[in-house]
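Bench notes, afternoon.
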Amino acid sequence: MEETIKVGLASYGMSGEVFHAPLLHVHEGFELRAVCERSRKKAAEKYPYIHSYSTYEDLLNDREIELVVVNTPDYLHFEMAKAALEAGKHVVVEKPFTITSGEADKLIRISRERGKLLSVFHNRRWDNGSLTVRQVLAEKLLGRLVLFESHFDRFRNYLQDSWKEKAGIGTGTVYNLGSHLIYEALDFFGEPKTVFADIRAERTGSCVDDTFDIFLGYPELKVLLRSSYLVKEPGPRYILHGTEGSYLKWGQDPQEEAMKAGKWPGTPGWGTEPPEFWGTLNTTINGTHFRGKIETLPGNYLAFYDNIFNAIRKGEELIITPEKAAKVIRIIELAYQSNKEQKVIAYS
């Protein structure tokens, strides 16, 4: 068994408490060594074995730490990831990678110069629905795909006291939820030819965008990515249509809610969902018509850290590369340009 990787968390906000700390705590390849907590020591209460640092500088100065998770507010990602790389640490950045594609490119250059791993926590690649759609596409169950529609909807008709609700560069739902959907589309289909976006603020008094429709254009395929905070009756999470059939899937992956409820990742039945949320496949396969439910593959966020461990210790190829994560930011930039100019923008 290879030596465990000692990890420092840059903060213990929502992503640290709900995602990173539990995943690292149960993963046998990692040791959660330290968390930066300036005032409340919530992480130290739950994980009494950790070092609790009051400053990020102290965390970076800990020579035992090999990997730093930068899970702070989005506008801090660039400077904090840069500092960690320059301190000789491997780095995982919470999504979205950075605010601008120029910042992403600089981090990629620094990671190469320092010979350090750099990745982005696009955990939704291991959502149950995403894994199942990947299988449907790989097996060509719909023939030639002509439409892919992906939703990340919520009902939150109120405003929260959060930096995410404050007007400014990098706030709003395109960066927050859109980064998930854009990464998935890139992962499935590669770079688009065009980008068109309609980005809106629909909640009363909202200072940031909370609704978007982003169209990515590919030869013979239209990709529609949608999100709204005013969807009380949810529709399908995925809608796929092809020359031979369709696949529709309802429901969000259960892992986030399970971890919020205090369940540990990897326990029996982890990432599975009841049959009522299984997607419906209506297609013709080898001349035979089929219509029915197909079982959703289990979600598995631990797979992200499996890959990080294997990349550091065994030289395995990185799945979430910073180059692909940087393309997410570029598409976000083009989406805002498209919305402002109200026209289709060529991807470049």
